[in-house]
Design a protein that fits this description.
single chain, ABC transporter transmembrane region fold, Rossmann fold, 7-stranded mixed beta sheet, 6-stranded mixed beta sheet, 25 strands, ATP hydrolysis activity, ABC_transporter-like_CS, nucleotide-binding, Multidrug resistance-associated ABC transporter protein
Length: about 1700
Amino acid sequence: MKLCAADAFDLGDACVRGSWASAAPAVVLLIIFASQIHYPLPKVIRRPVDILRAQFGQYLTLHDAEALLATDEKRVSEADGVAEVEVVAAVPLWRTFVFAIVGLVQALAWLSSGAFVLITTHAIWEGVQQFLVAATWLYTVVRPISHPTATPPFDMLAIYVANLGGGILQLGGYLFQHTAYGAPLPSTLSLVGFWLNLVLLVGLLVVVCAMPLGIPSNLVKKSEIGKSVSPEDYTSLWGWVTFRWVYPLVLRGRDTTLNEGDVWNLSPSISSRPIFLKFSSLKSTTLFRRLWAANSFDIIMDFLLTLLSVMFNYAGPFFLKRILDAVDTDNETEKDKGKAYIYASLMFLCSVAKAQCDVQHLWLGRRASTRIRSELMASIYDKALKRLDFSGVIDKEKAKAAAEKKAGHAAEASSATLSKAEQKAKAKAEKSKKEKADDPKPGADTGKIVNLMAGDANRIGMQISGFYFLYGAPMEIIIGSVFLYQLLGLSAFAGFVILLLGWPLNSFLTKRSIRIQKGVLKARDERMGVLTELIGAIKFIKFFAWETRWIDRAMGARANELKWMIKARMNGIGFYVLWLAGPIFISVISFCTYVMLGNQLTIGKAFTAISLFAMIRQPLNVIPNFIVQILQTRVSLNRIAVYLDEPEVTEQVSTLKKGVINPHSLAGEEEDSQLGLENASFKWNEVDEGEDKDKDGKKPASDADSITTAETIGPADHKFELKDISVVFPEGELTLVTGPTASGKTALLMAVLGEMTALPGSGRIIMAKNPSKIDRWGNAHTISYAAQSPWLRHQSIKDNILFGYPYDEERYNAVIDCCALGPDLDMLEDGDATEIGEKGVSLSGGQKARVALARAVYAKSKYVLLDDPLSAVDSHTSRVLYEKCLRGPILANRTVVLVTHHVELVLPGAHYLVRMLDGRIDTQGPVKELRAQGVLDDIKHDAAVEVEKEEAAVAAEEAVGEAEAVAAAVEGEEAAKDAAEKKKPRKLVKDEHREVGGVKWRIYKRYLKASSYYTWAFLAFMVLCSQLLSVGEKLWIKTWGEAYKEPANETSVFGGYRAFGLVDYEIPMDVSHFSHAGMATYELHPTTSGFFDHQWPNASEHPLFYVGVYAAIGFSSALVTILSAVAQITGALRASRLLFKSLLVTVVRATFRFHDTTPQGRMLNRFGKDIETIDTSLSSSLQQVNSSLAGFAAAIITVTVVFPAFLFPASIIGYFYYIYAIGYLNTGRDLRRMESNSRSPIFSDFGELLQGIVTVRAFAAEKRFLDNLHTRIDNTTKMWYTFWMTNRWLLLNFDFLGSLAVLFTSLFSIHFLVNNAGLAGLAITSALNFTSSVYWACRFWTGLELDLNSVERVVEYLELPQEPPAVIESSRPPAYWPSSAANDSLIVAENLTVKYAPDLPAVIQGVSFSLKAGERVGLLGRTGSGKSTLAMSILRFTDPSSGRILIDGIDITTVGVEDLRGRLTFIPQDATLFSGTLRENLDPFNEHDDATCLDVLQRVQMISRSSHASQATSTAASPDPSRPASPSPADTTESVISAALTEVDSKTVVTLDTQVSAGGTNFSQGQRQLIAMARALLRRSAIVVLDEATSSVDFKTDAKIQTTIREEFTDSLLLTIAHRLKTVIDYDRLLVLDKGQVVEFDTPHNLLQKDDGIFRGMCLKSGYFGDLEGAARAKAEKDGLL
C-alpha cells in the first residue's frame, strides 16, 4: 500500500507520519457523524439490526434505577407510570470556555499552517492533512457550545486521544530521525508548534478526565457521596480509569478494622430491588433468556474487551522479540538502540492498555455476576411468597422406596422367569431411571429452597464472572497456532491429533461429571435436610437422649455426600491427567514429525516452539474445564427453573400477583366484600409430578388437621378432602367453627384463605383482599389470621404484634389489655421489648398463642380468622379473652371466624355456628335458629367438657416460659451489675461474632492437623520437586542449544509471556482448585554453557534423543502435579470429614442455652457454606500459596544471580507492592468476614418465612417481606461487590507496577547488555516472573484467608459450652437402674439449690423431698415458682450449685447425661415428629417388634383394636405385606374403645409404614401428641416426667390418654408438671412450689384441708372446688387414708 509515494507503513517518511496523524482523528470524526444519522433500513435487515441494538442497550441506568425505587416506595399504580427523577446538571462556564477557546486556537493554527504549506510548497496532500486536523478541532469548538454536558464528552475525548497519538507520532518521528540518522529537524516555529499542540492536548485531557461520570439526582444527598453513597457512580473519569475511587476504603481498612457503616451502599443500578423490579417485568419464555436479556450488554462488552486484552497480551512477546533482535548485534548502532527504546515504550503502553482492558472487562463481568445473583435470590424468595404451601407433603421418594422394598422379593422371584430381551429392557429402564433419579423435581422442601438460594444462585453468579476464560482461550489458541505455523509449518498441528484421540475420554468424563454434580447437589440437599430437622428438634432429641442416633443419621447423609465428592474428585483427576498430558504429547509429537520429515530443529525454532506450546497449554486446559463448569451451572440453572415453575396460589390469595390495586377498581363488586365458600371442594396441596404418576403410584396426602395416609397401594388409601362446602360468614359478626379432632376445622380456614387445592369443577372462594378499600369502621378489606401453632418472628414482642403496621399507642394498649398480655409483660424484665427467640423459644405456649392473637386483633382488618386460640389458655384467661377481646370493642363490627371447642363459653356472643364432621359441614346456621331446632344441646354437650379440659392451660404454658424468664437473666448479667442505669432491652440472640485481624496461627494449625501433617509434608516435597524439574527443564534446553555445532542467531521470543490478568483463582470450579498451572511459564531459555560437563551427542544428528529427554522431564512434571492433586484431595477430604464430625457433635451436645440464643440459620450457615468451602476450595488455596511463594523465591534467586542491578528498581517497586498488598489483605479480610456474617440473616429469615408463609399471605404482608429481603441481599452484596472492587484496584495497580518493572529492565538491558540477548531476555522475563509471583502470592493469600475464615467460624463453634459428658465409662449405672421395685426413695433431693449463673439469685432454694417408686406426684406452683426448673434438674439440664439429686441411690451428677436421660422418659408439651416412617418415630433404635409398636398405638387411640388386630395378623402372616389390610367397619363398632378417632378409621389407614413429613406437619396437633404419648409408653421407664400436653386433643381422647397413663405407668414413678388441677387431684401426692421452695407436699385431700394453703387457694379460684374436693376424698378413701 502506497502513501505519499512511499510505503504506507514507512514511518521514517514525514509525509506518511503526517497522513496517519491526520487520518486517525478524521476517521473518528466520520464515525461520530455516522452514528448520529439514522438511515432507513430495508425490512430484511431492520429486524436483525434492532435485535443487535437491543443487546447493546443498557439494562438499567443509574437514574432509571432511582426512578424505579421511587415508584416502588410510593406504591404508585401502574397507570400513573414511573416516578420522575430530577437531575440538575449545571455545566461550569469555564469548562465550555476552555474547550471552545483551545479548539478555536488549534483550528486556526492548523488552517493557517495548511494554507501556508499550499501557498509555499504546493504540496496539496500535506495541506489537506492539516485541514483535516483543523476540521476535527472545529468540531470540538461547536460541540461544547451546542451540547454542553457536565459528564465527560466521549466523542471529544476520542478526538483528543487521536490527535495526541498523531502529535506524538509526528514529533517523535522527527526526533528519532534526527538522533538515529542525523536528519535535519524542522523549523523552530514548527517544533514549538508541535510541543504546544501536545501540551494543550494533555491539558484538555486533564480537564476531561476530571469531569464526573454521573450527576447526583434530587434523591441523593451530595454530602453523603463517599460516606454512605457509593462514589462509583459519581467519580471522575480519571478516578474510574485508575479505580482511585476504591482507594479511600482500602486506606481506611489498612489502618483500622472496618465495620458495616464504613462500607458505602451499593449503587442503585446494582441494588436488589430495582434490578428485581426490572427483571420481573421481562417477558421471556425461559429463565435463561430472561437472564440474558437482563445482562447481555455486560456479557458482550466483557467478551469484546477480553479479546482486546488477549491481543495486547500477545503484543508483549512480539515487541520483546524486536527488542532482543535489535540488541543482539555485534555492532549496535544508535538506530538499533533507538528502535529498541521505542519497542520497550510500546511494550509498556501495550501492557498498560492490557491492564485497563482487564480491569474494565472484569468489572463488567462482576457487575453481571452481582446482578444475576441478586435477580436469582430475589426470584427464589418472591416465588416462595407465591407458591403453594407444600410444608406438610411427605417425602414421596422415601415412601416409594419403602413400597419398592416391600415389592422387592416378589420382583426378584419373577425376574428369573423373564426372557433375555425382557431382562435387557428392564436393565435399560433401571439405568435410565437411575440417571434421572437426581434430576431436579418440583415440591422443594425448606432445606432445598435455602440451598437454591445459597448454593445454586451463587454458583451461576460466579460462573458469569469467570466467563472471560472461555472468550479469551480460543483467541489465544488461534494466535498461538498462527505463530506455530510460521515456525514449524503443518508439523505444528500433527500433535493436535492427540486432541481428537482424547476427545471420547473427555466427553465420557464430561457426561460423568454432570451425573456426579447432580448427585453431589442432591446429597448436599439431603444432608442439609437432616441437619435442618436435627437442629429444629434438638431439645426433643436431648429429652430422649437420642443425640447419638441423630449424629449417626447426619453422618450417614454426610457419608453419602462424601462418596459423591470422592467420585467428583476422581473424575477431576481424570480431567487433570488428560489436560496435563495433552500439551506435552502435542509438543513432543510435533517435534518428532518435524524432525522425521527431514527438517533441522534449530535452537531458535525449538525454543520459540516450546514457549508457544507452553502459552497454548493454559487455554487448552481452560476450554474443557470450563465446558464442565458450564454444564454444571446448567444443572443449577435447571434446579432453579424447575422451582420457579412450581404451581402458585391465585391472584385472589397473593397480593404480589395482584400488584398495586386501584382503590376504585373494586367498588362495585359487592359479592366479594363477603367472606366464605360457595359449593367448593378442596384437597391438601400435593406435588404434581406429571410423568411420575403411574397406574399404581398414588400421591401423598398432606393434612394439617387429619391423619395422613401411608403411601400404600390399593383402595384402602383415602385422602382427606373438604367436600361441597358452602358457607358465607355473616359480616361484622362472630362465627364459631367446632367439631371433633381431625374433622377439618383448620382445613376450612385454610380453604377460605386459598391455601388448599380446589378440586376440578369445584365452586369458588368468596374473598377479596384490598388494603386500599376501607369500611366505615376504619377497617381495611384484608384478613388477619392466628394459626393453631402460633408462628412468631425472631423479634421483640411489640414488633410481632405490630407486624409492620404503624404504631398507635391507644390501640396497642387496648390490644395488650384485651389479650390478657399485661401481667405477662409486667413479669418480663424488658416488657414488650423482650426479644422472642426462634420459634418463640422464650415464651410459653399460652403466651405464644396470645401474642399471635394480639397480632391478628391489632391489624385493622375487616376479617379475623382465629384457629383455636382458646385451647392454649386456662378457663380464667379464656373468659377474659372472650369478654374483652371477642366481645370487646376491638373486634366489634369485624367479621370474626373462631375455631374452638369452648362452645358453651363463646356461644352467648356468637351469631353463627358451623359444625364440621369428616371434611363436611354437618350443621350450620344462625345460633338462634339452631337453638330453636334443638341442635345446639348436642353440640354443646360434645364440646362442654373441653372447657374443663383446657381450664388451667395458661398457668401451664406460662410455667414453661418461667424457666426461660429466669434464664433470660443470664444474658442480663452485665445489666444486673449495672441496675442503676436505664438498660436497653437485652438481646436474646447475640449479634454474630466476627474475628478481627489476620487469621491466627492456631486456625492454620487446626486445619493442617485435621488434614494430616504428613499430607502437607508430602505436598511441600512435591513443590520442591516441581521447582527442581522446572530448573532441570531450563538446563536441559540450554544443553540442547549448545549441542548444535553452530547455534543459529535466533533468540527466544515467545517466553511463555503470560500476563497475570487471567485470574485462575477466580475460576469457580471444583476441578480447577488442584493447583495453579500458570506459574512456571514465564521463563526464557538463553544458551549458556555447561551441564555436568558431559559430552552430549550432536543435536542435528540425534534430535530425537533431546526431544525424548525433554518429554521425560515434561511427563515427570505432570506426574508430580497429579500426585500433588491426589495428596491434596486426600488431605482435604480427611479435614472436612473430621471438622464436620467435630462441629456436628459439638453443636448437638451444646447446652440448651446456646440453642435458645442462636438462630438456626446461623448454625446452618456453618454446616452449609462454611463446610462447603472446607470441602472444595480451602486445600487448593493453601497449595496455591505454597506454589506461588516457591515461584517467587525461585524468581528472586534467578534475578539476584543473573542481574543484580535489577534489585535497585525492584526494591522501590517492591515497597509499593507491600503497601498495596497490606491495604488489600486487611480490607479484603474484613469485607469477606462481614459478608459471611451478613449472609446468615438471609437464610434465617428465609427459613422463618417458609414456616409462616400462610400467615404472611393471610395478612397480605408479602411485599414487606420482599422489601426486607432486598435490604438484606444488598447488605451482603455490598460487602461481596466492594471486596471484588478492591481486588480490581489491586490488579490494576499490580499490573501497572509489573509493566514498570519490565520497562526498567528493558531499558537497563538495552543500555548495558549489548550483544547478549540471552541475558537480556532472562533479565526481562525474571522481572516478569518476580512481579507476577508477588501478585499471585497476594491473591492466593487473600483467597486462603477468606477460606480459612470458614475454618475460623467452624472452630469458633468447636469451643461452645458443652453439656456434661454423655457417658462416663468409669461410672455407668447398672442395667436395672433405676429400679421400679418397692423403693421409698427413688428420687431424693437433698438441700437442692439451682442457679442459672453463679452471680444470679437461686431459682430453686434448699429444696429437699423424697419420691417413691410407682407413685404419682403432681408438681404445682404459680408462674415463676420453679416447677420447670426442678423437672429440668432431674433430667440434668441444669446442675445444682449446691445440694444433690439422688435417683435410686446414685447421685445424678456422677452419671453421663445420655445414661440418665435414656433411663427416664420426658413427655414435653410440644410433640415433635421426624421425617421417616411412623415406626421410625416410635422406635428409632428398633428395640421392639411390630406387634408391640401397634399395641401402643392402639392404647393411645391412634388406631382401633380392629385395625390393630388386622395389622398384627397380616404382619404375622407375611413378613413383608404389600399393603395393610383394610379395617372392617363392623369391628370398629364392636370396639370397646370409642374414641373420636375411630370415626375416622373407616376412611384413613395408619400403619407403621405411614410416612411422616418433617416436623410431623401431615398430622394434626392432637395426633402428634398421641404419637408422642405412644413413644413414651414404648420406653417403659421407671421414672416418667410429664409436662402436661393434651390441650389440642378432644376431650374423649384426652380422657382415654389419662386412663392409659394411669393404667400403663403403674410401675413407674410419674412426675407431672401439672397445668390442670383436675388431672392431678387423684394423684398420690402433690408437691407445691413457691418462689423456688417446697411450701406444701402431701396428699391432695390433706392439702385441701389446710385453710391458708396455696393448693386450696388454687382449687377455690378454679370454680370447680366441689368436684375437686370430691375426687380427692374418693382417692383418700380408696387408699385407706380416711
